[in-house]
Amino acid sequence: MRSWLTAAAVSTAAALLLSGCAAGPAGSRTGTGTGTQTGTGTGTPSWGNGTRAQALALARHLLAELSLPPGTKPSHVTSLPPLLRQHQGPGAGWAGAQEILVAPGSPSAVLERLDAHAPFGTPTRYGAVPPTWSGALLPAPERGIDAAQVSVGTAAEPGSRTLVVAYAGATWLPGRAAAEHLDPASFRAVAVTERESQQVPRSRQVTRAVTDPAVIARLAALVNGLPPASEPAARSCAAVLTGYTVRFTAGGGSGTVAAAVSTGECGIDAISVNGKPQPGLWDTRDHLAAMARALLGRAALPPAAGG
């Protein structure tokens, strides 16, 4: 990898970064944190803050939306069959609801009907053979909600009936910490660094300084517009061989790094302010990396939606 950049390449990248069609924090989120919601490009986020009440209302709506056979009624069983006890319920940061029903028809017929209607989009069958469960994950189903999921389990009942256990849950987007908000007017420079993983032989690191106030404002707006990551990054993710860090240097001649944002695995950017780590940010469309590459002359920024 080359360790030098021409002034022309950096100037071109800066021009692209500032153009009206430069890629801001835009894109569509997924419920597993594989996207980012649309931002305004001016530091005003459009992902909104959700609440537990909103998530619970959505979970109940998803249960009401299930397409069950005519004649389905509430069940008053006191003990579920073993195959229907595996659901753990919603975890921390989730609100959930459940229903226990009895429906006419076989379990397979009930699942086929459910899978063909909302809220299922791409259902996943799991459980015993034949499958006893069907589930679906809904990415960012509404403003303020990070993800929702529905799981339905079935078991045969006497008289050609099916016992149905339906669970729905949703997780809401927490508010961004006030400390994370970046005020571009308080920065005099930004250092953009490209680093290679230690897994790469002869890895190198390249850093370029940016002092253009308009570019600094654009970068701050991108960071301010990223949604908070509402789940930890402790998941199995593909290794990132090339990463980027953007360091914002405070004004006043102190040279202190006031904030730093780094790309990471699982689509979550890490951010620290005044040396203190803050909650991560969803950035699975790699907007920060794209802007960093443009400023380093590695590539042109892709156009934003509507650009």
Structure description:
The structure is a single chain. The chain folds into two domains: 7-49 and 176-295, no CATH class; 52-172, no CATH class. Helices cover 19% and strands 30% of the residues. The chain has five helices and twelve strands. It has helices at 7-18, 52-65, 107-115, 213-225, 287-295, and strands spanning 73-74, 94-104, 124-126, 133-139, 145-157, 161-172, 187-196, 205-210, 242-250, 257-262, 268-273, 276-282. The strands form two sheets. A six-stranded antiparallel sheet has the order 1-2-6-5-4-3. It has a six-stranded antiparallel sheet with strand order 8-7-9-10-11-12, with helices on one face. A hairpin with a 2-residue loop joins strand 11 (268-273) and strand 12 (276-282).
Helix content: 10-25%
Uncertain segments are 1-46
Q: What is the tally of beta strands?
A: 12
Major sheet characteristics: 6 strands, antiparallel
Q: What is the beta-strand fraction?
A: 25-35%
Overall residue-averaged pLDDT value:
77
Rg is 24 Å
- The ordered string of helix (H) and strand (E) elements is HHEEHEEEEEEHEEEEH
Shape: elongated
Strand line-up of the largest beta sheet = 1-2-6-5-4-3
Q: How many domains, as an integer?
A: 2
**Annotation field: number of helices:** 5
Distance between the termini: 31 Å
Which structural category fits the helices and strands?
Answer: alpha+beta
Write the layout of secondary structure elements.
Elements: H1 7-18, H2 52-65, E1 73-74, E2 94-104, H3 107-115, E3 124-126, E4 133-139, E5 145-157, E6 161-172, E7 187-196, E8 205-210, H4 213-225, E9 242-250, E10 257-262, E11 268-273, E12 276-282, H5 287-295
Antiparallel strand pairs: 1-2, 2-6, 3-4, 4-5, 5-6, 7-8, 7-9, 9-10, 10-11, 11-12
